[in-house]
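Reopening this one. Same input as before:
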Amino acid sequence: MCYSAFGQNKDVGRELKRLNAKIDRVRVMVDSLELDNQILLPELMSAFRQAVKSKAQQDSITLVVLKRLNTLSNKIVNLENQSRYMDSTALEIFNKLVLVENKIITLTNSYNEMARLKSGEPISSEPQFNNAQYKETYMKSLGHFQNQNFKNAISGFKELVKADATNDLADNSQYWLAECFYSQKDFKRAIAEFEKVFTYPGTDKDDDAQLKIGLAYQSIGNIDKAREEFQRFIDYFPGSEYYPKAKEAIKQLSIN
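Same output, byte for byte:
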């Protein structure tokens, strides 16, 4: 195999691992869809079925989401099977990764629509900020975080993630929102917010969030779950700068 082909396969393999991490996390979110860590997916779906009697719109959304979930599941299975032949089908697999990425975007949007509909919020709204305003608010909120002014930091980051989830800084805003709760030792809320980072396609904060989820579970004394999350990090982010930290964390948990 020529060097360029090897390099391409290596890049595809790395991208596949990162994408699988997001798929895995989205699966967890869908399986345990919660609002304020209390409402499980079956209860949410039950609420939708009840609301369908009076709202045709909700019926339409539910059917679309279920169809998208099924389509995504089939795509994942097909992609995993084809990845075994990366040497000869690297380009084809890469293209399929793009397709699955698009499916994740669709699923994420549907997930957010379901949560908003359940909470009574409007399903869609116009962005409140242009790019310059978004960045300015982001930097101001980050400054509040660094100065441990968590109240204002949380307010700013919440406003950003709600205003425009497609902005280039939206995933960072979500991550730092989670960090605010983590810094205040509100670990359960931090876990819920860190998990939302995975709903942003193309985010580079997924390994950061995955590590913090493990540390948060460790901090609240849920050792089994912490070990599971650190292992997920090791499986999906072998190239991360935080890999040695995750390895050491799981090692210490095993000793204890």
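So the earlier flakiness isn't reproducible anymore. For the record, The chain has eleven helices and no strands.
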